[in-house]
Amino acid sequence: METILSLVDEGASSPAIRDLAYKLWDLAGGDVELFLHYAAWSLYQLSYNETKARLLEGLVQHPVYTLYAGSGVCVDYTILYSSLLKAVGISHVIVLANVTGQGVVDMPHTLIGVELSSGVKLPFKYHGYFGEHGYKLNASIEYNGRTYYLVDPTPSPVVFIENACRLTPPQSIYPAFAGEIVWDKVVVRKVIEVSGG
Question: Cα–Cα–Cα angle for 150, 155, 88, nearest 5°?
């Protein structure tokens, strides 16, 4: 776990990630929930590395490498996303879990959890469509007496393209909101706290 935290710290202090985080923060006008959306959407422009997922299990790459290579697996994207959050001072948790849904059962996966004092609003405001089709719009975990809304920063080609194409007009934005996930079941294995800034 120390490796993950040290990579998040290194990423948050790197000029490339810090600059991207500040630009997204400015774009969001300081709105934390909107920043979470922009940061996730930015990562969805990258690609999931199926080969690494199959052959290099356990190999974690530096978040700057993930950004420049444009490719990684869930833990790489979680570290990069966590670095973006830390760079602008947002405290959060990294969630190591097993997920079920979208054709997988009990698959190891990593997610981000963010505490939002007023709960999530954006999925309901902009994407009622997904709620109508059974996707979780208020997904959260309880940890140390606090509610953390889940964000899945990993681009998923099958889910991503399939759902984006269902919208009219097609858009590349799902599932980019806090609390909006495709998994039917999330079983938490470990939670790692990350302080902001």
Answer: 55
